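ping. complex inputs:
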Amino acid sequence: MSSHYEFRVAGLVSQRSRGAFPDMVVVDAPPETIIVGEVQDESHLHGVLALIQSLGLRVVSLQEIHHRP
Amino acid sequence: MGEWPPARGRLGVPRVKTAVPRLSARHIARPRLLEALDAATPGQLVLVSAPAGYGKTLLLAEWAAHDPTRTAWVALDEDDNDDRRFWSAVLTALTSCPVVPEAHDLRGFPVPARPSHDHEFVAGVLEAIEAMPAALRLVLDDVHELTATDPLHGLGTLVRDHPRGFQVVLAGRSDPPLPLGRLRLDGRLCEVRAGELRFSVAEADAMFAVAEIPVRPDQVRELVAQTEGWAAGLRLASLSMRGADPDVFVADLVANSRAVSDYLVSEILDRLPRADRELLAAVSVCDRLSASLAAALSGRADAGEVLDVLEHETSLVISSGEGRVYYRVHPLLRSHLLADLRRRRPDLVTELHRRAAAWFADRDQPVAALTHARRAADTTLVTALLRRHALPLIGNGRLRAVREALRWLVGRGHDDDVWLAMVGVLVDLQTGGVRAARAHLDRADHLWPADPPPDLVALRDRVVAGIAVSDGDLDAMMAATEEIATTGAADPELAVMGRLGRALALATAGRAGEALRIAQPALDQARELGLGLLVAHGLAVLAVIAAGTGEYRRMTELAEHADRDVSPGTEWVATSGAATTAMLRSFGALLRADPGRCLELVGKALSFADQGSPPDLMSATCLAVRGAARVDLGQRLDGLQDLRSARGAAAASGRAGPALIAMVALLEHRAAALLGRHDLARAVSGWADGALGDAGEVALLRAWQLSEVGRYRSAHAEIAPLLDGSRPLLTPWALIDACVVECRLALHTLHTSRARSSLSRALELTESMDARRPLATAPPDVVDLLVRHLGSFGALDATARRVLAARHALGIDHSTVALTDRERTVLNLLPSQRSFDEIARDLTVSHSTVKTHVRAIYSKLDAGSRREAVDIARRHGLLLPEG
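pong. complex structure:
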C-alpha cells in the first residue's frame, strides 16, 4: 500500500542533513524545504517523521500525494 | 518427579535505567515549571510532552532532586516493548526507592509471562503500592519508546487504576496513546508542554551567563526568537559562540534561512578539531557504547578520554551507568554524523560495523554481533557467527536473531550451505512454519553431501523428528528419535532437543514411564546450560506426559510453569511449545468444568496453526476441546460443528493416533448424547469402532448406546472389563465416564449398593484427576443419586459439592431438551413446507399421531408456533443448519 508523501519542514536543510534522506527528493522552497518520497506503510511514515524530528527539523505540513492518471 | 524451583523473580534491569539523571553544575533551575509540577494533585497524571531537546528530562530530574526518597525513575527504551522487561524495570525502580521498606511485598514480586494482561499480577502490584507507607511518584521518561500493545495496555491500567497517593509522571516526545482528552476534561491531567518548556529570555540569559558567554540582552532576545526558546538550540548556540564574535554569529543566524538545528550542528562540527570530529563520526554507528568499544571503533586507545573531555567541555556526549561506563553522543548530533558518514564514506560505515561486530563477538554477545555483521554486509562473519552461536541462540529462544541473519544470507553466496539450511528448518519448526520447514528440508536434502559429518546428521535427525511431531506421525517420531536417544550428539543443545523429542514420542505412544526417565534429566541439563527455550519445552513435555497418565492437575501446573518462568529475551510465546502448553491448559480447564477459561486458552493454541491450510492434528485436538467447551456454554450449534470438524480432520489425516481419536470420539459422543442427538452419537460410536478396534473407549461408547436402549446386561458386560482394568482405556478421564455409565446401569437394575460404590469411585477419580466435567455433565439419574447421598461421602463431600456447583454453573438442568427419536424425526421435517398431513403420510402414521408429537415438541421447547419451534430448535443445536 505504498504511496508518496510530501513533508514540509521549516527552514532550509543543509547538504549534510539531506544525506539522511537518500531515497527521497529534497527540494528548496524558501522559507521551507520539501521532502518527497515513497512511503511503504504507516510504520515507515512514522519512521520518516521520527528521522526528521531527530535531525531537529520542524514539520510544517505533511500530505499524501495521489498519482495523477 | 523433582521439586520445581520457586517462581523466579524479574529480569535484571541495568542500574542506568532506574537512576535519576544527575544535574550538571551548569543546570539552569526552572522554578516556574517546578511550581506547575508541584501544583499537580496526587490523583492527577503528570504529562511532560515536547519534541527532543526541550529539557523534559532535566526538568523532571530537577523536580526529583527536591524529593529524591520517594521518586522512582525509569528511562524507557526500545527493549521495554517486551512486556516483561517493562514491568521488571517498573518494579525495580519502585523497590529501589529509599522509602520502600526492605521487607516490602513488592521486592519479591515475580513477573509472569504476559504481565500486562495478567489481572492478578497487575492488581497485586497496585495493592502493594497502595500498602506503601509513603506516597510514591513513578517517572517514566521517554514514554514515546513504548509502541507495543502489551506494555501500553499495562501503562493504561497503571494510569487508570493508580492507587491513591501514587503519582504517575510521563515524559516523551509524543503524546502516549492514553485517553488524555477525557483525563483533561475530568481535571485529572497536569500538563507541561513545549509552550511552557520554551526558555524565556531571562532563562536564556542565565544560561549564557553560566556558560560564560558574553552576549548583550538584544542578542539574547534575537537568539530566543530564532530558536523559539528551544533548549537544545540555545545550548548548541552557546557552544558555537565559544570564542566567536557574538555579533557576527547572531547576525549570521538571523540572516540565514537554514533550519536552526541544522545550522547549529554544522557550526559545532566545524569548530571541533578534525581528529575529534572523526572520532565522533566513528562511534556514531552505535547508540550506547563503552570506552573499550569506542576505542575499537575509532582505532584510538584514548577514545574514552576524548569522550570524557567532550562531555565536560561541550555536553555533546552524555555518560551514564555505574562509574559512567557508557557514553552516548547527543542524538541530534549522532543522526547528523551518521547520515553524513553514510553519504560520504559508505565504505567506512561498513568497516565500522565490522569492527563493532568483532568487538561484540569477542565478548560473547552474538545477537549484537550478528546485527552489526549484517550491517557490515560481511557474509563470512555472519556465517561464522551462526556456526558458533546458532544452536545456543535457538536453545535460548533468540529465534528472531537467527532467522533474520539466515534470511539476510539468502542470495549471498551461502545458499548451498547444507548446515545453515538445516538450522533454518529448525527455526521454522520452532515457530510453527511446518510447510516452510518441509520445503526447506527438501532443499537442504538436495545439497546433502556424500559423506556427512556427524553433527550434520544429528541436526537432520532433529529436524525430521520435529516435522514428525508437527504431523502427529507417531511411527515417524519414534523412528527419528531412536538414534538420538542412544547416541549422544556433540552439540549439547541438539542432545537436549533430541532427548526431549524422544520423550515426547514415547509419551505420545503411551509409554509414560520411559518418557519421564528421559525427559527429566534432559530438562535438568537444559537448566544447567541456561537454555531458556529448551527448559520451557522440557516442562511442556512433562505436561504432555502428565496428561497421558491422567495427572491433569500436574499437567496444568507444568504448562503454566513453562509459560510463566520463561527467561528474559526468550521468544517462547511465538513457538510451537507455547501452542502445546496453551492447548494443555485449555484441556485442563475443560476437564475442571471451566469452559470460559478453556475457550480463552484454546484460542491462543488455535491461532498458532497455519492459517488457511486444512486443520492439522494439533488443530483437531484444539477444535474438539473448543467444541466441547462451546457445548458446555450453551453454544451448541457452534460446538457441534467444531466437534464434527475435529473428527473430520482426525479422519482425513490418516495419521491420527488412537489417543486423539478416542478423545475426539468421547467428547463428540457426550455432546451428542447430552443434546439428545442419538443419531449423531451412533455415528460417532461407529467411527470410533472402526478406527480404534478393541480400545476401551469403544466398549465405553457401546455400553452407553446399549444402556440408552435398555439392554443393561449387555451394557454391563461391556463396561466391567474397563472397571477392573482388564481392558485399558487410552484416555484416563474416560474411566470416570465408565463409572458414571456403571452407576446408571446399577440404578436401572436396582443394584443400589453397586450404584453407590460406582459413584464413590467416580468421585475419587474426579478428585485425584481434578476432572469435574464427566460427573458434572452426567445423566440426571446419576446426579440425583449424588444429591441424595450428599453428606455421606466423607472427605469426598467437598468434591461432590464442587461437582454440583459446576453443574449448576453450566446450567445443564435448565437447558437440556430431551426429545424422543420419533419427535426428533418430526422436528426435522418442521422446517420444510410440508403440511402435517403430508408429514403423516411421509412417516406412514396417522394425522393425530403427528399432532401429538408436534404438541410434545412445542411444550418441550416452550414454543408457541411451528416457526418458533424451528427457531428454538436451531438455537439449541437440535436441528442442523440448512445446506
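The first helix of chain A runs from residue 15 to 18.
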